[in-house]
Prior knowledge:
Elements: H1 7-22, E1 27-29, E2 36-38, E3 50-52, H2 53-62, H3 83-96, H4 105-117, H5 120-131, E4 137-140, E5 156-160, E6 163-170, E7 181-187, E8 198-204, E9 210-216, E10 222-235, E11 239-240, H6 246-260, H7 264-280, E12 282-283, E13 286-287, H8 292-320, H9 327-352
Amino acid sequence: MDLNFRPEYKDFRKEVEAFCNKWKGVYFKNASNSPLLDLTSSGSNEGNKIITRQKWQKILIENGYFARSIPKEYGGFGGENDEIKNRIIASEFAYHGIPSPMSGQGIDMLVPTLLELGTEEQKQKYIKKTLHGEMIWCQGYSEPNAGSDLASLQTKAELIDGKWIINGQKIWTSTAQYSQMMFCLVRTEPEAKKHAGISYLLIPMGTPGIDVRPLIDMTLKAGFNEVFFTDVAIPEENIVGKRGEGWAVANATLTHERGSLTNPNATMSRVNALIDRMKEDTINGIRLIDIPVYRDKLIALQAKVTAFQSNSLRVLSAKLNPGQDVKMAGMIQKYYGTELRHELEGFAVDVMGELGTLYEDSPLPER
């Protein structure tokens, strides 16, 4: 594997670096509850202002730093699909601390599924709104008796007079309380073998008969939800792929999900944010980063993240060479990335001490 960039990639890196310097200092204001970006301290030649998160998404797309290979008619940049340039963008954004594009189940999982398997009408109707943050999606997969054995799902849909009539229940549904749409697996042929007879439907969450009930966790917030369907009627054309072949569509979606969870540059951004925090916070007048036990653990984590980045490049190299199967490597990458994030954020809680037990909206004591 040759990790040296050709001249065109070196020039592209300079272009991305210039964009990052222009927007250096931009950050999300109250990111959990507000779609605002506060640019007051950005130092950008755009001036002091506050713009919406959707506006930031639009800036990234227009400059080709997000949705690069998605056609313009679907709301993307309309450029070439160049994985190396995508990695350069992610790497530079992580290094300069530039906010990443909006993500989520709709952007990361549904959009590539529709590009691959959706009808032209579905692409035109859903992709642009989803990419630009105007339409939020949730995923209707798990059920009380169909979690790890997803193919045992029992939520059913019957086609009656040109409409799917849906009855059943989903659980552990993230963002259901905020979403306008759900991509959902339902059983349309109850007599078929369990991996067959499943269809993949797109359900407007405002449809009569949908009941979203929050599941409150220890933070007193609803990170998940239950969703109940009682005679929910949606148009026949809201199916992706063929009737009874939704399992294959779901597998395509899950492939994109794995990819969205294995971004090593996002992990490095978290490391850099932790380093900045450790340079500022003190214990008995000593900076956290100067405490040997903390510094040693931080160095070990940096080494793991660097190895994670290198393995990601190995997987990328295999993808770019025809005939190589990287499915297992991708699953390993997801597993390692998940474990690494858990270790990193656990360490962040430790070094913050008592502050590490606070929730995101808790007031911080004055320094």
